[in-house]
Design brief:
Helix 4 packs across helix 5 (about 255-260). The strands form 3 sheets. The protein has a 5-stranded mixed sheet with strand order 5-6-4-3-7, with no helix packed on it. Strands 8-10-9 form a 3-stranded antiparallel sheet. It has about 290 residues and is an alpha+beta fold. The chain is about 30% helix and about 15% strand. Strand 1 and strand 2 form a beta hairpin. The longest helix is centred in the N-terminal third of the chain and has 32 residues, at about 5-35. It is flat.
């Protein structure tokens, strides 16, 4: 007996659904799980977890902070790059800050919880902190000595032209001292909370200052990665930390540098990306070879 066309089409669709459900919903996932259990691949399939004495201390693929309970860097460890993922290196909240090069003016509110830092101020404050921690010059162009963006709002008599009538250091508030006393003969004021100097007609003017063109603190020490989970730092950032780590552990700097080189990976395929140092693996090697005093 020949089935009606509509019924034959529905039965064919049902058979296809069942076949693809078995193939793609059962067989394919089980095959991938089986491949992930092959010796040598099982660790990668489980997230490249790093275990010490039977305890999981992290993943070689996800960065983490090496700080104390108050969030201060632990001096005997190499420090990771900043993270914008949640409260830091949160795999469930991986994200960048979405701030760009035009983010130079802080939001200063009477309620500190409503205040936000511009990307420039974040970079300036991080560079200052790294410089103090590692004993290097933390100055950067367009940064004030107290670690905020060196940015002025310049007001002119008739908008964009005319004599300057007022100048405000938009990222500095009392009790700070303006990073420049005057601008073109006009005294510089400190910013007031809850004021929008751009909306008021101020011309935003970053001031370069006398910082070296090539800062001692590398870029990856002051900026987060796109994912916020990067487990690596640059060899340049590792190098400025060597002296501190060696001092805290009572070790020779040459020996610490040797470990840094050992945990530095080169460019992929010899030409893609940049050399990088895995911070977790390096710190674990330090704990093994140079236990903290």
């Amino acid at each position: 007996m020949r089935l009606p066309t509509w019924l034959a089409q529905h039965l064919a669709a049902l058979r296809a659904l069942l076949v693809f459900t078995v193939l793609l919903g059962l067989a394919y996932p089980l095959a991938l799980v089986a491949v992930g259990r092959i010796p040598g691949l099982d660790g990668k399939a489980d997230g490249s977890l790093v275990n010490v004495s039977g305890k999981t201390v992290g993943s070689s693929l996800i960065g983490q902070s090496f700080t104390d309970a108050d969030g201060n860097p632990v001096p005997r460890y190499f420090q990771s790059r900043p993270s914008a993922a949640g409260d830091g290196y949160d795999p469930t909240s991986t994200a960048a800050s979405n701030l760009g090069p035009e983010s130079v003016v802080d939001t200063i509110a009477a309620n500190p919880d409503d205040s936000t830092q511009s990307l420039l101020t974040q970079v300036c404050s991080r560079s200052k902190a790294v410089g103090e921690l590692d004993g290097v010059d933390g100055r950067r162009p367009y940064c004030t000595p107290d670690g905020v963006g060196a940015v002025l709002a310049v007001f002119r008599a008739d908008g964009l032209t005319g004599p300057i009538t007022r100048v405000v250091s938009v990222n500095q508030v009392a009790p700070a001292t303006p990073f420049v006393g005057s601008y073109q003969g006009v005294p510089v004021e400190l910013a007031q909370s809850d004021q929008d100097y751009v909306a008021d007609g101020g011309i935003i003017t970053p001031i370069r200052g006398d910082a070296p063109a090539r800062p001692a603190v590398p870029a990856d020490a002051v900026t987060a990665s796109g994912s916020g989970l990067d487990p690596h730092i640059s060899p340049a950032y590792a190098e400025i930390q060597v002296a501190r780590v060696a001092r805290e552990r009572g070790a020779d700097q040459a020996a610490v540098r040797r470990l840094v080189e050992e945990y530095t990976t080169g460019r992929a395929l010899g030409f893609m990306g940049e050399p990088a140092v895995n911070v977790l693996e390096l710190n674990l090697a330090l704990d093994k070879e140079f236990p903290a005093r």
